[in-house]
Amino acid sequence: MVFIPLVGIDNHWKSVTFGAILLEKEDNDNYIWACESFKKVFVKNPKCIITDQDLAMKLGTVFCAESGFMEKLNQFIWSDHITPEEFEQGWSDAIEEFDLSDNVWLREMFELRNFWIPAYFNDEPMVGLLRTTSRSESSNFYFGNYVQRGDTLSEFYLCYQSAIDKQRNNSKKLTHYDDFTPKLITDREIEKDALRLYTRAMFYKVQEEIKAGSMDIVVLSMNFSENTRTIMIQDTFKKGITFKVAVNIETNNIECSCKLFTRAGYLCSHAFFCLGICGIKLIPRQNVCNRWLKNAIERFSTLELGEISDTGTTQLSRRVKSQDCWFEFQGCLSDASGNPDILEYIRSGLSSMRKHITVTMKKPRTRLNSEQIEELIDSRVVEEVTIQNPNKSNNKGSRKRIVSGAEKSIGCNKRKKRKCATCKEYAFHDSRTCPEKN
């Protein structure tokens, strides 16, 4: 069967497996079943499905390696700072230069450009998944160290569980390392703020952006409109490309035309540069993505995770309602965009609802009952035990000890005499050790 791990990214920027699928074969019907099963288990539909195609398989490895076609084409395919129009012009120039206008596969891929070219996904939160297939390849390699072709289903399941346990243990180690303070490279308060917020791995990424924001960035113009300051800058490290940064002085909300925050979930060097110009010393909280925080896991600890294995209609309904409540709450915070009045409105509304719930429930629950504990650990107490104790086996050290020659001689009185075939007498020797034999 075909093993397909479902891989995401945790708050340490590491791959994390949240499910797996076994298919009889790779065809449309099986993949449709896999997608429908995914929706049934996780309730929410996936935003997109990513697959990959090998360009060298279609054009030939020699042509791709020696002609320079791939090098030129990649400048337009994987650039983060070009528009769809600029990509189309660059693609056309490369196809014309290498005389590939008659290539059917390239024509088909160009027609599907809005499904795979990053220039068309600048407004989508892809967190780095679209740029490379290395995560799927590394995931396949990781599980390949645990499972082998030809394993039985039970053997595969045990090996899969071992791989998941190892992955969880590595995640706990990274969480433990978050308590160790990395070295700061600037004196800016905003870098210290990032250290308090992000996990160690994500802090290093944000730190690089803060460092780049302290380098050679040229301010071309600066305009004021109501509460917004619009700054045009030129980044010398990105081939002199001009970027537009808008900062709301009242809410500290910031947007950059490079759209790194939209794609990856953390601010770019241009944003940190402009925050410094505006005298903002902390990262605006509306520009802090929750998925990269140190306490990202704790935020979901109150959800009824044990219900994910339940198939009953009532249990599924409870789980869906819990998730919907959480998503509604997150949506309110996102829509508030750091507005103090709106945030106070949300806080007062939540406080009022909590008081109403407390009165309705008569008293708050301070301890988990047995049913809640079972749901939390996703395990149920069985009423009847059908598993019997296994038969005892002779382990190492449980057998009789080998007796030495001295002990044998001492214990001769316990032995019975037998008749010797040589001397014809009853003694403790035999014909092989008979004294008269010599």
Q: What's the SSE blueprint?
A:
Elements: E1 2-9, E2 15-23, H1 28-42, H2 55-59, H3 61-66, H4 69-77, H5 84-97, H6 104-111, H7 134-144, H8 153-177, H9 189-197, H10 200-212, E3 217-225, E4 228-235, E5 241-248, E6 254-256, H11 260-264, H12 269-277, H13 313-336, H14 340-360, H15 370-377, H16 405-410, E7 418-419, E8 426-427
Antiparallel strand pairs: 1-2, 3-4, 4-5, 5-6, 7-8
Helix pairs in contact: 4-5, 9-10, 10-12
Organism: Daucus carota subsp. sativus (Carrot)
Pfam family, one: MULE
GO molecular function: zinc ion binding
Q: How is the largest sheet built, in terms of strand order?
A: 3-4-5-6
Percent helix among the residues? 40-55%
Indicate the mean pLDDT.
Answer: 80
Gross morphology is elongated
What does this structure look like?
This is SWIM-type domain-containing protein. One of its GO terms (molecular function) is zinc ion binding. This protein is of the alpha+beta class. Strands 3-4-5-6 form a four-stranded antiparallel beta sheet, with helices on one face. Strands 1-2 form a two-stranded antiparallel sheet. Helix 4 packs antiparallel against helix 5 and helix 10 crosses helix 12. It is elongated, with a radius of gyration of 34 Å.
